[in-house]
Amino acid sequence: MLVRALRRAAARLRWRVLFVKDLLIGLALIIGAAWGIRALWRPVPPIWSGTRRHVPFRGGRVYLIHPRSYLTGILPLTALLASLIALGLQFLVHGCARLDPALYSLGPARAFVLLGALAVPLTVLQWVVNAVNRPARLVPPGLRDEPGWVARRWRPAEVTRIRNMRHKADRRARRRRRQNRNEPGAVVRRQAGQARTPNVR
Q: Which tens digits make up the pLDDT trace of 3-16?
């Protein structure tokens, strides 16, 4: 009798330990993947508006991410992280099913497989945007005239023309800023501001 009671107690303890393990793994996957999705999408508004010209990471040799392809570049990564969230939910369901078998379900596992498979066409879309900078709706408005790597390789003259146009536009913008800075009214306002500023030594 004592041996049977000890075995039952050991089995209950084992199930509880496994439940806590599944719970911790599931929560770690969900929290980590959610944090990763937030970190990926946080730079999207400044990159899309043109106020930010660099990306948090550029990827690897096969999977490059540029400012013009940042949105399509994070779509496959988002799908993979979302699949990890589904995997974490499956761990939670599996842990709860240890206590109540009626709670068992394979729904999160199916979502894990579907989201992982969705990353494949999204990766192909990223390669297309890097190659031809199209479709234009997925490229930031200020970068839609940039050539992809296909145009850079096969049409270098057009790439040079676009680069020269941008340089000329930048020079005109700098010239306008200098002219506005040197206007009589601007000089008077600047001198007045300097006069109001105390000379602290």
A: 677 677 776 777 77
